[in-house]
Amino acid sequence: MPDVILVTGGHGLVGKAIQHVLATEAPNSRYGRRDGETWIFARSGDGDLRDAEATRALFEKYKPTHVIHLAALVGGLFMHLKYKVSMLRDNILINDNVLHTSYLTGVQKVISCLSTCVFPDGIEPPLREDKIHLGPPHHSNFGYAHAKRLVDVANRAYKEQYGLNYTAAIPTNIYGPNDNYTPEDSHVIPGLLHKCYLAKKNGTPFVVAGSGKPLRQFVFSHDLAKMFIWQLREYDDVEPIIFSVGEDDDVSIRYVAEQIVKAFDFQGEVRFDTSKSDGQYRKPASNEKLLRLMRETSKDNEEFKFTPFEQGLKESVDWFIENYHQARTGQVAVNGATTTGKDHVATKLVTREIANGTASL
């Protein structure tokens, strides 16, 4: 019986990266598309995963044997602070429907995508897989973080009650082509890309929020895609795995900004707005378990090779410039009001609140 792999959220940053890797790696290789595999990349328009019946219809249509679950309601700090109930409830509904429908329809394996925000606030570094439940997450995103934590709880419950092979990945900061570049929702690299692009276009200073001193681990989306494909094919345990570059491979936000300036050939003024918060200075995560297992399951006991940050960033900038007019950057109208972004979480939440009579624009 052929494998049918359903990827929820299949047209986002990571879903597009998986499509790229499958198409560019050698057929039947470790990360390339294999004979007997059918890959389905679902988008939000294919079914509302908050709705149990719509989720069941999606699964009955494609009859997946395996699921990579990337779909989520997610945004930047602004969204997490303002929409705590939506971040909690919508993600709980999405995750419960995907996991339970997988159980009801006989899916063999599910891999869900978590986030390092699930870790307790102030936990002693480095972040490791066994520290997820040692304390509450940071208050700024506790709705989203708790919803994601519950996936790990659910995976263990399905394993213990039904013997099912459900697990999860915990990526650090992801960047790459096909990201979300909308002002309110974007994370640091896509946000800085958009700012630098506009600064060069308009002849204005490139302003970076904060001092630029904080350090972060950035993982290129194409590398992350390979990790998901590996986990799907070669990892068989309920325990989640951190997907990240090494603890000592983190880079400062200032260095990120400098590399973006270089990639854009931006000749204007660069400012660091120190009136803005830097956030946590450093939160290193260990990739020791990931690298050990990927090495042990490889044919030649070889180490996984990460894309150098400078190379991945240049590819991301080049993609953004070439695809600017179709990237998630523009403005959309919602019932006569204008909100920034193209088909993004803020628009969806505002649309829903207007329908419920609760929106304030």
From TrEMBL:
The protein's Enzyme Commission number: 1.1.1.271
Keyword ATP-binding belongs to the record: no
NAD-dependent epimerase/dehydratase domain: residues covered: 5-246
Domain of life: Eukaryota
Annotated pathway: Nucleotide-sugar biosynthesis; GDP-L-fucose biosynthesis via de novo pathway; GDP-L-fucose from GDP-alpha-D-mannose: step 2/2
Keywords: Isomerase, NADP, Oxidoreductase
InterPro entries assigned: Epimerase_deHydtase, GDP_fucose/colitose_synth, NAD(P)-bd_dom_sf
GO molecular function ontology, one term from the record: isomerase activity
Family statement: Belongs to the NAD(P)-dependent epimerase/dehydratase family. Fucose synthase subfamily.
Protein name: GDP-L-fucose synthase
Native source organism of the sequence: Russula ochroleuca
Lineage: Eukaryota, Fungi, Dikarya, Basidiomycota, Agaricomycotina
